[in-house]
Amino acid sequence: MRLNYANMEKETDDNYGHILKYTGIFGGVQGLNIVIGLVRNKLIALLLGPSGMGLASLFNTTVNFVSQSTNLGVAFSAVRHISAYYDQGDEQRLAHYVKVVRGWSLLTALLGLLLCLVLGPVLSYTTFAWGNHTLHFMLLGPAVAMIAITGGETAILKGVRRLGALAGVQVFSVFAALLISIPVYYFFGETGIVPVIVLMAFATMVLTLRYSLRLFPLRLSGARGILGEGMDMVRLGVAFTLAGIVGSSSEMVIRAFLNVKGDLDMLGLYNAGYMLTITYAGMVFSAMEADYFPRLSGVQHDVATTNDTVNRQMEVSLLLVSPMLAALIISLPVLIPLLFSAQFLPVVGMGQVAALAMYLKVLTLPVAYITLARGRSLAYLFLETSYYVVFVLMIMVGYEQWGLYGTGVAVTLAHLFDYLLINGFAYKKYGYRCSVTVFRYAGVQLAFGLCAFVLTLTLSGWSYWLAGIIVTLFSGLYSLQILRQKTHLWQALMRRFRKA
């Protein structure tokens, strides 16, 4: 009995260590992306100026729109099937399904390329009010095609848990973007925008193929008729694509509403506050799609294991992100003028109340992946659409009632609705049960977050900063203590400290 208990304890420790390791890796990569992106954007702004930045934004937005509209969600939905075959140890079916994914990726690549070639005049007319940019949009076709191929190969790497390779691709792609864009813009200015987009897509594709082809060399034998075998993948992918379109449409509606009811300055403030809070927490959430979703897909038919996988992911994510959120709430009065300018200080209150929504997102996102792991495409589309409808309505009501601060309240209330909807649906349909441990951690960390928020309303000056630092410190110490108990993190840190 003691031996079984020891084995169970070791397994739990290993699971926590695995989640913590790859959350740290991909969170760190995301942080590096943000830092390099800031440097790159600064240099590009100096080289191209506002008009060049606007032109690049239009072309990039068009490429993303065409890509999302034609890739059928293969880059996401393929992970579920590949992961299942990988966990079963069925190498023959796994290798065959890799051919299926590559076949569909090639088909979507050709579809995206063809759409750019055919719709070039339409895209030019609808996007620009001056000049003829048909040739530019036609030349962007190869970039759309390469993004589709990269998506399929990335799904293969995720499905077979090559997480180190994925992290490597992301890191090298960031530096490749910097090394490609700056010289081209320096010598060619705005003329180099389209070549840069194509070259960056090519670099990312080559880096991804470098890893994926080592695992599964390209074989054309037995490829006839494989497209008919991927319809389940495509159905889930189409639902994922439609949900993305619903999300993009809701963002457009919100921005149009704020522009009409307020002005461009109000819209800019909302964008700054929303992106700062979402991006900050996204450094932790970025690990879920790369590591967590493939693991969850592999155990989708086992209710007990699914519950265990979801709850452990939730525990680690909650412990990692909560101290960051407390620090964000307290430090926004300094961060906003530092990252933007003093003109953006009105967004501080909105950002502080919107940050509370990220506590709810930690408790929602791992559960939301259950629907995707089970391939319930219509259910996923329904849940996403319901959230975005409520989100838009709450933003409108919040702004009408309390202005910019009301949009922050609306973000948090919309996430509360999403938490209740997703968890209630999973409880009824999939037998998901949130563990007592998750409730305990969430109760403690949410209390710290609420304390930090209350400080923003009640204190000022040195007392505000002193109390804020204490709350953030207690939140961090609580998380560190739990992670120390659950993993070998503390022992590893002490060994490195002694070696140093």
Task: Give a description of the structure.
The chain has 500 residues and is an all-alpha fold. It is built from 16 helices and no strands. Helix 1 crosses helix 10, helix 10 packs antiparallel against helix 11 and helix 10 runs parallel beside helix 14. The chain is globular. The two termini are 40 Å apart. The N terminus is likely disordered.
Short description:
It is built from 16 helices and no strands. It is an all-alpha fold and 500 residues long.
From the helix content, strand content and strand pairing, which structural class follows? Answer: mainly alpha
Order of helices and strands: HHHHHHHHHHHHHHHH
Q: Which stretches are poorly predicted, pLDDT < 50 over at least 5 residues?
A: 1-13
Report the end-to-end length measured between terminal Cα atoms. Answer: 40 Å
* Gyration radius, rounded: 24 Å
Strand composition percent: under 5%
Please report the number of helical segments: 16
Biggest sheet architecture: none
State the helical fraction.
Answer: over 70%
Number of DSSP strands? 0
Mean pLDDT: 82
Overall form? globular
List the helices and strands and how they pair.
Blueprint: H1 2-70, H2 74-88, H3 91-127, H4 134-139, H5 141-159, H6 163-188, H7 193-215, H8 231-261, H9 264-298, H10 303-339, H11 348-354, H12 356-373, H13 377-429, H14 436-458, H15 461-486, H16 489-499
Helix pairs in contact: 1-3, 1-5, 1-6, 1-9, 1-10, 2-3, 2-5, 2-8, 2-9, 3-5, 5-7, 6-7, 8-13, 9-10, 9-11, 9-12, 10-11, 10-12, 10-14, 10-15, 11-13, 12-13, 14-15
